[in-house]
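Pasting as-is:
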Amino acid sequence: MSASPALQLIPSELQAWRDAFSRLKPSSPPCPGISQTAWLPMYDHALDVLDRFGAEAVELGWSSADLFGVHPTAGTIRADHCGALMLSGAKVTGLSANKLKHSLLTYRRNTPG
């Protein structure tokens, strides 16, 4: 009899991110400031981040706002209100406690204190 694979629990925050993202349409930008052309790669790369780095992001304390935040009325036009995944359409290559690395850009998470 073969051994069954180990059970992997998905952190609830990661599941919430996946659920919220599944309600977005890849063909329809979710906020002002993102063109339809720019949104599709952003959408694909965000799903990739959830798959490859999602559990790690939860463990490192990244929040929904840190990753997906946008200004409630201005959208991505207000870059100072954007999460790391909303600033660039580039694929994420690395994640640490305070940095999310895109191919040519490093997003540094500001943490009070």
